[in-house]
Amino acid sequence: MLTTRFTEMFGIEHPIVQGGMQWVGRAELVAAVANAGALGFVTALTQPTPEDLADEIARTREMTDRPFGVNLTILPAIDPPPYEEYRQAIIESGVPVVETAGFNPKDHLPAFAEAGIKVVHKCTSVRHAVKAQSLGVDAVSVDGFECAGHPGEDDIPGLVLLPAAADAITIPMLASGGFADARGLVAALALGADGINMGTRFLCTQEAPVHQRVKEQMIAHSERDTELIFRPLRNTARVASNSVSRKVVEILEDGGEFGDVRELVSGARGRTVFENGDTEAGIWSAGMVQGLINDIPSVAELVERIVGEATELIQQRLTGLTSTTSP
User: Fold this and answer.
1) d(CA 177, CA 142)
2) What single string gives the DSSP state of each residue in 46-93?
3) Helices marked H in 115-211
4) Which of 100, 112, 189, 269 fits a disulfide with 117 by CB distance 3.0 to 4.6 angstroms?
């Protein structure tokens, strides 16, 4: 067993986290992660209403008696979701931890703190991690440029970003972006993290509510099979490479505006990919770590493999590199 500040603070066995993923962070996956001794997050905005979120939390609780949390992603919108109502549903459901992402979570932190809920905030830069700590979050998840979804605009990979963040903060830190196996976990710990946060790797597990063809496409993909969309709009997102994402890149690089790609990147199309298995139907988030994914295990098998192999790496390979005798 690998014990870190994060496992101790959040009452979990293993320093592995399944972050919130749109359309994917549902009860079946989250409960499987919790039952495996890791920490999973139900994705709040995947549920159409706060009432639906409360029902999904209750459904998850029927499948596990172990800790799990809820992801609340705060994004700009002309007609934003009722964030306060989602927050209240989380509080009333008795969830012990929330993962916040997107915009500054300061407006939500007092209510979560009053309810005794710990907060992990996702960051893409050292300055954002420092700011989150100053606001009073309990831990941060720091995303390197390799990650799926929004990597920020600084383009700093994890090998540099993680130790830089570890030097700047004192609260527990998760390493996110590019993690799929034991080697990544051991590397993250060496870089100063207290655990790893995986999205793409958990997407390719038996319990993930995603069509089999999508999982098989991820196995077929290499680390080169992603696209960075919305770069000219300064809202970069990393998604799987397909005809749709490549078209979006082409339109925007040729001077197009968001309105020119709105229909191509709609959430409804992305949801269709996951539900129907048509990997050319829309855009879908996937990280460069696709190149390290070669199978579709159960969540329990994946977590056990990562922790077991990480322990062996630390005890055998790394310890064997040191010498106790003088040259």
Assistant:
1) 8
2) GSSSHHHHHHHHHHHHHH-SS--EEEEEE---SS---HHHHHHHHHHT
3) 126-135, 158-168, 182-190, 200-203
4) 112
Residue 96 has pLDDT above 60, yes or no: yes
Report residue 252 CA to chain centroid gap: 26
The CA radius of gyration of the chain, in Å to the nearest whole number, is 19
Q: Which structural domains are found in the chain, ordered by start?
A: 5-198+299-321 (3.20.20.70), 212-276 (no CATH)
Asked if 307 contacts 16 with a C-beta cutoff of 8 angstroms, the reply is yes
Distance CA 261, CA 256 (A): 8
Question: What DSSP letter does each residue of 185-217 carry, written as one string?
Answer: HHHHHHTT-S-EEESHHHHTSTTSSS-HHHHHH
- 110: burial class by Cβ within 10 Å (0-12, 13-18, 19+)? exposed
| Minimum mean pLDDT range among 76-90, 185-199, 215-229, 287-301 | 76-90
User: What's the burial of 291, exposed, middle or buried (CB within 10 Å: 0-12/13-18/19+)?
Assistant: middle
